[in-house]
């Protein structure tokens, strides 16, 4: 019978060390002379005394208790656990990227700026959109930016009656949350027996108060919306816009483009689809 991994504290042995520091070659000063007594411990911290190999083996064994993209298939389509090629992870850690600073002179950041510009242009071409922006720092941030763009579009046109956003019952949970944070009323439409948006139900709620339809395609069930052109047309016919949640963009890369489907605003999760580091 396999037993649970012991705690690191249970592996501790008196006097065992993970590393031996070289002899000090400068005069030693008692810590009491450097730090006020009120900040000093009266007892040693209860830290485990273990060798380096104990630490490595302990946490390596613990890592095998969890399922992940490196150990097996992960079928959750609308979430972040997608396999990134290791070479991409290594490239992302190059000092030229990791050691950039916002206050560096422009002449020292031209390579990064060129890369960002070309990425924007490539993303626009890949998705069939007119332009792209890399300012949002995460998927939820990008989604909020997109819905606020839609809101600004209607307001700039003087169309203040747009108070509703339609989301399918299979929508990613951030969609209704984002629309609500932007001040919209959420209208949910059901899926049909095939797991796609019910066209008749959509027609019933599509009116001139609709600001947008938020849609993931393929949806969170992993199904491509077969009637996508009709879906976007229904919303456009009442003056609304259609928002594309790029959570499942991996499934259509090089096959179909959101812009060709009739989507007006989209966001992509670059850490999911293009293996960038999380948080960007």
What does it look like?
There is one protein chain. Strands 2-1-3-4-5 form a 5-stranded parallel sheet, with helices on both faces. Helix 5 (139-156) crosses helix 6. Strand 1 (164-168), helix 6 and strand 2 (185-189) form a beta-alpha-beta unit. It folds into 2 domains: 1-20 and 45-65, no CATH class; 108-274, Aspartate Aminotransferase, domain 2, CATH 3.40.640. With 280 residues, the protein is of the alpha/beta class. The chain contains 10 helices and 5 strands; from the N terminus they run αααααβαβαβαβαβα.
The tally of strands reads 5
Give the C-alpha Rg: 26 Å
- The CATH topology of the largest domain is Aspartate Aminotransferase, domain 2
Largest sheet: spatial strand order: 2-1-3-4-5
Proportion in helices: 25-40%
Q: Class by helix and strand content?
A: alpha/beta
How would you briefly describe this protein structure?
By secondary structure, the protein is an alpha/beta fold. It is 33% helix and 10% strand.
Keywords, separated by commas or semicolons:
280 residues; alpha/beta; Aspartate Aminotransferase, domain 2; 5 strands; 10% strand
Set down the secondary structure blueprint.
Layout: H1 52-63, H2 86-92, H3 95-98, H4 110-127, H5 139-156, E1 164-168, H6 174-181, E2 185-189, H7 199-205, E3 210-216, H8 228-237, E4 241-246, H9 258-261, E5 265-268, H10 270-273
Parallel strand pairs: 1-2, 1-3, 3-4, 4-5
Helix pairs in contact: 5-6
């Amino acid at each position: 019978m396999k037993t649970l991994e012991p705690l690191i504290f249970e592996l501790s042995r008196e006097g065992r060390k993970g590393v031996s520091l070289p002899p000090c070659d400068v005069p030693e000063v008692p810590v009491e002379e450097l730090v006020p007594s009120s900040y000093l411990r009266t007892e040693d911290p209860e830290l485990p005394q273990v060798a380096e190999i104990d630490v490595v083996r302990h946490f390596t064994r613990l890592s095998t208790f969890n399922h992940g993209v490196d150990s097996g298939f992960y079928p959750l389509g609308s979430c972040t656990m997608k396999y990134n090629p290791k070479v991409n992870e290594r490239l992302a850690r190059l000092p030229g990227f990791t050691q950039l600073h916002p206050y560096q002179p422009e002449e020292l950041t031209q390579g990064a700026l060129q890369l960002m510009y070309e990425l924007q242009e490539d993303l626009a071409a890949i998705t069939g959109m007119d332009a792209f922006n890399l300012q949002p720092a995460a998927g939820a941030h990008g989604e909020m930016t997109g819905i606020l763009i839609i809101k600004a579009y209607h307001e700039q046109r003087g169309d203040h009656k747009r108070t509703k956003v339609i989301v399918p019952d299979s929508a990613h949970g951030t969609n209704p949350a984002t629309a609500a944070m932007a001040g919209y009323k959420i209208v949910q439409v059901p899926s049909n027996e095939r797991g796609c948006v019910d066209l008749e139900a959509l027609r019933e709620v599509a009116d001139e108060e609709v600001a947008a339809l938020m849609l993931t395609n393929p949806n969170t069930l992993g199904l491509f919306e077969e009637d996508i052109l009709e879906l976007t047309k229904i919303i456009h016919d009442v003056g609304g816009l259609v928002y594309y949640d790029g959570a499942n963009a991996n499934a259509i890369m090089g096959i179909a483009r959101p812009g060709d489907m009739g989507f007006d605003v989209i966001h992509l999760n670059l850490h999911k689809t293009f293996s960038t580091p999380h948080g960007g």
